[in-house]
Automatic annotation (TrEMBL):
UniProt-listed Pfam families: Aa_trans
Highest taxon in the source lineage: Eukaryota
Keyword Membrane part of the UniProt annotation: yes
Principal location class: membrane
Protein name (database record): Amino acid transporter transmembrane domain-containing protein
GO molecular function (one): L-amino acid transmembrane transporter activity
Gene Ontology CC terms, in alphabetical order: membrane
Membrane topology, as annotated: Multi-pass membrane protein
Length: 472
C-alpha cells in the first residue's frame, strides 16, 4: 500500500503518517495508544484541556453544523427539481455525505497527528494542496456565517417590521456571533448546539403545520385561479438544476468539520455513533419537512422557508429560530477560527496556555473571519445563491473529492485485489468524479444566476437596507 512507503515518517508539519490499521476499522483502543503521543492537543497538567467533548455533545455540534441553514433551503430546491428527483437527490447525498464522513473519521484515526481537513490534504497532496484546502475551508465557513447573517437580518426585519436597516441587523448579528464563537472549547459551546437544533426544529415544524392549514399559499393570488407550481418531476435548466442540486448537497456536507470535532472528543473511537445519529436526524428532517412545505406551497415557497406561511407565522417561527440561527453561525465561525488558530500556534507553548499571544491570536481569528462573512453576506444578499455558491466552490472539493482521495492513498492496492476490493476502489474514483461535476457545474450555474439576478434587479445593491429574503 502507498502508506507503507512513508510508515512512521515525521513530516515537517508535525503530522505522524501511519499505514492503515490492521483492525479493519476497529479503533476501540485508539485513545489508549495515542492519547498524548500524536494528538495536537495534549492532556498535560498545567495546560488547557481541549479534548473534553463526549459523543452526544459531538453529535449535537455536527447536527447544528448541517441543520442550521440546510432545512431553510431545501423546499425552494425541491421546486426547481420536482418532488421525486429532489427526494432522490436528498437521499443520495445523505448516503454519500455520511459515507464520506466515515472515510474522514477513519483516516483521522489511522493518522492521529491530523487535526483538521487541511492536515488531511497535506497527507494526500503535500503543502500546495494543504494551502488550497485550508483556504476553501475558511472561505466556506465564512460563506456560512454570511448566510446566517442574511437569515438573521431577515428574522429581525420580520420581528421588528423593518424598524432598522438590514445592514444594521446583519452587523449586530455579526458581533453576537463573534462573541459567541470566542469560547475556546467545543465542550463549552456544545450544549448550545442541542438548544440551537431544537429551536430550528420547532420553528420549521410550526411552518410545516401552518402551511397545511392554508387554503392556498400566502404568496399566491388570494382570489381566482392560480398555478400552485407543484411538480413530481421538474423541468429545470442546467444552471438552475445544478444550483438546486448543489444547494441540497451542501445542506449535509459537514464531513470536513467533523475532523476537528473528533480532535476534541474524549474518546475519538465513538465518532461513528455521533455521525450516524446526526445524519439520521438531519436527513429524515430534510426529506419530510422539505416535501411537506413544497407540497403545500409549490412555487410560492419562500427562501428562507420560514416565511412561507404568512406574516404572523413568520414572526413566530423566526422568533423561535433566532437561537438556532445564531448557534449555527457560532459553530461555523468557531471551526474556521480554530483551524487558523491551530495553524498559527501549532507546536507552540501558547497553543494550550492562557498567554496574551494565545488570546490575541484566538480573538483576532474569530472577529476577523466573522467580519469577512459579514462583508460576503452584504455583497451577495440572496440566501439560496449564497448556499449554492458555498457548496460548489468550497465544500464539493472538501466533502466529495478529498475523502475518496484520502482513502485511495491508503488503499491504492485494492485496484488489483479481490472483486469487491476492485468495486470499492472504483466507487471512490466515481465519488471523486461526482465532486468534480458539482464543482464545475454548480459554480457555473450559480454564477450565471447571480449575474442574471443583478441584471434584472432580483438582488439589490451591496450593503442595501432592503430585506434580503426572496421567493422562488
Amino acid at each position: 500500500m502507498a502508506a507503507e512507503a512513508h510508515m512512521y515518517e515525521k513530516e515537517s508539519s508535525g503530522i505522524e503518517i501511519y499505514p492503515p490499521s490492521e483492525a479493519n476499522g476497529d479503533f476501540s483502543d485508539y485513545t489508549l495508544k495515542d492519547e498524548n503521543q500524536h494528538e495536537v492537543f495534549k492532556k498535560e497538567e498545567g495546560k488547557v484541556d481541549f479534548r473534553t467533548t463526549g459523543w452526544l455533545r459531538a453529535s449535537g455540534i455536527m447536527i447544528k453544523v448541517q441543520f442550521a441553514l440546510g432545512v431553510l433551503n431545501i423546499p425552494s430546491n425541491l421546486y426547481v427539481l420536482g418532488a421525486l428527483p429532489g427526494s432522490l437527490v436528498i437521499v443520495g447525498y445523505a448516503f454519500l455525505n455520511t459515507y464520506n464522513g466515515v472515510l474522514f473519521g477513519d483516516f483521522k484515526l489511522r493518522h492521529p497527528g491530523i487535526y483538521d481537513v487541511k492536515d488531511v490534504a497535506y497527507v494526500v497532496g503535500g503543502p500546495v494542496l494543504r494551502e488550497i484546502m485550508a483556504a476553501l475551508y475558511m472561505i466556506g465557513c465564512a460563506f456560512c456565517v454570511a448566510s446566517s447573517c442574511v437569515g438573521l437580518s431577515v428574522a429581525f426585519n420580520s420581528l421588528s417590521h423593518h424598524a432598522a436597516c438590514s445592514v444594521w441587523w446583519s452587523f449586530m448579528s455579526m458581533m453576537v456571533i463573534a462573541v459567541g464563537a470566542s469560547f475556546r472549547k467545543f465542550h463549552t459551546i456544545g450544549w448550545l448546539t442541542w438548544a440551537g437544533f431544537l429551536s430550528m426544529y420547532v420553528s420549521v415544524f410550526i411552518v410545516v403545520v401552518a402551511v397545511t392549514t392554508l387554503s392556498r399559499p400566502v404568496a399566491a393570488p388570494q382570489t381566482g385561479p392560480y398555478d400552485l407550481g407543484y411538480h413530481v418531476i421538474g423541468n429545470p435548466t442546467f444552471e438552475t438544476g445544478m444550483t438546486a442540486v448543489t444547494g441540497i448537497f451542501v445542506s449535509g456536507a459537514g464531513a470536513p468539520m467533523n475532523i476537528q470535532v473528533i480532535s476534541e472528543m474524549r474518546k475519538p473511537a465513538d465518532y461513528r455513533k455521533a455521525l450516524y445519529l446526526c445524519n439520521v436526524i438531519v436527513n429524515a428532517s430534510y426529506l419530510t419537512f422539505g416535501l411537506v412545505i413544497y407540497r403545500w406551497c409549490g412555487k410560492w415557497v419562500a427562501s428562507p422557508s420560514l416565511g412561507s406561511a404568512g406574516q404572523t407565522i413568520k414572526m413566530v417561527s423566526y422568533g423561535i429560530a433566532l437561537i438556532g440561527l445564531f448557534v449555527g453561525a457560532i459553530v461555523y465561525l468557531h471551526l474556521a477560527a480554530k483551524m487558523l488558530f491551530v495553524r498559527i500556534l501549532r507546536d507552540s507553548k501558547h497553543l494550550q496556555s492562557n498567554s496574551v499571544i494565545h488570546w490575541t491570536v484566538w480573538l483576532a481569528s474569530t472577529f476577523g473571519i466573522c467580519a469577512i462573512g459579514f462583508i460576503l453576506g452584504e455583497a451577495i444578499p440572496i440566501f439560496n445563491y449564497l448556499i449554492a455558491l458555498t457548496g460548489s466552490i468550497c465544500f464539493a472539493p472538501l466533502s466529495l473529492c478529498l475523502p475518496p482521495a484520502a482513502w485511495l492513498l491508503d488503499y491504492w492496492g485494492y485496484w488489483k485485489g479481490t472483486f469487491w476490493q476492485k468495486m470499492f476502489w472504483a466507487a471512490q474514483v466515481i465519488s471523486f468524479l461526482c465532486g468534480c461535476l458539482v464543482i464545475v457545474g454548480g459554480t457555473y450555474g450559480t454564477v450565471k444566476q447571480i449575474v442574471q439576478a443583478y441584471a434584472d434587479g432580483t438582488i439589490g445593491k451591496a450593503f442595501d437596507c432592503a430585506d434580503n429574503s426572496n421567493s422562488s
